[in-house]
Amino acid sequence: MKKLLLFIAAIITISTAQSQELRIGAKAGVNFASVGGDFTDNYDGRTSFHIGGLVEIPLSEKFSIQPELLYSGQGAKSEYDNSFGDSLVIGKEKLKLDYINIPIMAKYYIIEGLSVEAGPQFGILVSAKNEYEESGFRGEISGEEDVKEFYNTLDIGFGLGTSYRLNNGVFFSARYVIGLTDITDDDDVDFGPFDIDGYKQRNRAIQLSAGFSF
Q1: How far is CA 206 from the centre of its chain?
Q2: Whole-model pTM?
Q3: What is the pLDDT along the chain (214 residues), one digit of tens a residue?
């Protein structure tokens, strides 16, 4: 983790030294997040939010680097129904994975105000909870459990998007982030006679944002 933070600090320092003008701003928006990979066929998306700050560091008239620091709600939700004899159990769950994300976007301005962007994202898991509701032979039950021990602290992804900035500093952006690393902390899954190695799941999210920079 220390090496990662030093690497990010080095990129920002070098970019700042080569730039002539900085733009500092804030952004917020909606996340349409989901989890893909093993055992996620019945997963649906979780709608949440992101909020944070950014620094845009111009390197030339067309290119800039934009590090960000965002709080981001991610995860997934699912519904199920299982039969146990004559009884039917119906339930739904919501996996809430909350991260501090550090995207580092390289931006290219196609025309004034309109840019495309791409770059890595480094996420630090701060909270992981499973919220559930169930009805069946045990009656109505609901609750929330902490599942952070089952998930990796570090998540690495790659973002691709576009942004448009008005002359008054207001901007709007859309970004797709796909996870590159496994978010689970399980080495394998043991289902009786079936032992499944390489149990892997990855984050993904569509982010729509609005913000202001000056």
Answers
A1: 9
A2: 0.84
A3: 666 555 556 555 655 555 557 999 999 999 999 999 988 888 999 999 999 999 999 999 999 999 999 999 999 999 877 766 566 778 889 999 999 999 999 999 999 999 999 999 999 999 999 998 888 666 788 899 999 999 999 999 999 999 999 999 999 999 999 999 999 986 545 444 444 455 789 999 999 999 999 9
Burial of 166 (0-12, 13-18, 19+ CB in 10 A): exposed
Nearest one of 71, 86, 155 to 120, comparing CA atoms? 155
Tokens 């448009």 locate to 164
Q: What is the distance between the alpha carbons of residues 106 and 121, in angstroms, rounded to a whole number? A: 11
